[in-house]
Design brief:
Helices cover about 30% and strands about 10% of the residues. The protein has helices at about 15-25, 40-50, 65-75, 125-140, 165-170, 200-210, 235-255, 285-295; strands spanning about 30-35, 55-60, 85-90, 215-220, 255-260, 305-310. Strands 2-1-3-4-5-6 form a six-stranded mixed sheet, with helices on both faces. Helix 2 (about 40-50) links the parallel strand 1 and strand 2. The longest helix is centred in the last third of the chain and has 20 residues, at about 235-255.
């Protein structure tokens, strides 16, 4: 039995920290994704959707690692109705994606299951001992947690250091200016899952494991237009096919699917981004406001398009 002491998020490794947050029982709603989702503030989401959100967006998280996190959250979902907001990046539409963790820092899969016996060999490894010592230093007043108790930590540079010219150099490497600004377009009718995009089947698995009452919100997170495929290219055709399959999943699982991966004033403005995939802090509230309009009020978002919604 663990000691009855305060346990703030002291472990700097998100892959070890987040399972403990889920199992703590303090949260009934979650954000899942990778680093591009980090500026979405769980407190702001809680004010809009209700419940207490934890941010489980892992830096460099592969779809397989996000699947592990989603299944863990689904298994430990509390009795209250909650919201799962899943930030989907371009990797979900890769055809050759595999069940792999991060190359340099993979998620420890033994922490994401409910078999306590396979945890025992790891109780006295270096990471566990380091985490215990850090917690001790916290209770001695020697260190403070960097991560908020709900997992929120934006790790892009300080906004005071933002350099537009430097950002534009980053964007130029992604092919900036490869397409015109246009309004978001509706997706064609969705076919059944083809198996072409393996990660979509993993997403379907997690959504199917959630309680029926859970509000499910899938968000195609916005990159800069430099990271959108050129019009008429094979890459664009692949992404559109992927979106059609996501529409099928969302409709079958009773989820919202909201697409920010389109050319709009948000994605076409250089000043909104640090690089091709990481938007700045002021963009987070814009995205949350769009989600509020689309999910709760049924109104079109300013920077997104609703691809699918649960039947009322």
């Amino acid at each position: 039995t663990a000691l009855p002491i305060e346990r703030p998020p002291m472990n700097g490794n998100q892959r070890f920290l987040f399972p403990a947050m889920v199992r703590s029982g303090q949260f009934d709603s979650y954000v899942i994704g990778m680093s591009s989702s980090r500026p979405l503030d769980p407190v702001a989401l809680g004010h809009i959707f209700g419940g207490r959100f934890a941010h489980l967006g892992m830096n460099g998280a592969t779809p397989w690692e996000q699947r592990l996190m989603g299944l863990l959250a689904a298994h430990h979902w509390g009795p209250n109705d909650g919201t799962l907001l899943w930030s989907l990046d371009r990797y979900w539409c890769f055809e050759d994606i595999g069940p792999n963790g991060h190359r340099d820092n993979p998620a420890p899969e033994w922490l994401y299951d409910d078999n306590v016996w396979n945890d025992i060999p790891f109780l006295f490894n270096g990471k566990a001992i380091d985490s215990a010592m850090t917690l001790l230093r916290y209770h001695l007043g020697l260190v403070r947690p960097k991560t908020r108790a709900d997992g929120f930590l934006v790790e892009t540079p300080d906004e005071k250091t933002y350099d537009l010219n430097k950002a534009r150099k980053q964007l130029a490497n992604g092919g900036r200016g490869s397409r015109d600004v246009e309004g978001p377009q509706p997706i064609a009718e969705a076919p059944a899952i083809s198996g072409r995009f393996p990660a979509i089947a993993w997403l379907d698995e997690v959504l199917g494991a959630l309680p029926a009452e859970t509000r499910k919100v899938l968000v195609l997170i916005p990159p800069h237009v430099a990271n959108l495929p050129s019009r008429g290219s094979q890459a664009e055709a692949r992404v559109e096919a992927c979106k059609r399959e996501l529409v099928h999943i969302a409709r079958r699982q009773g989820a919202f699917l909201i697409d920010f991966r389109v050319a709009t004033a948000l994605t076409s403005t250089d000043e909104n981004f640090w690089d091709g995939v990481h938007f700045r802090r002021h963009v987070g509230p814009w995205i949350i406001d769009d989600l509020k309009s689309t999910v709760l009020a049924g109104r079109p978002g300013r920077y997104s398009i609703l691809l699918a919604a649960p039947q009322r």
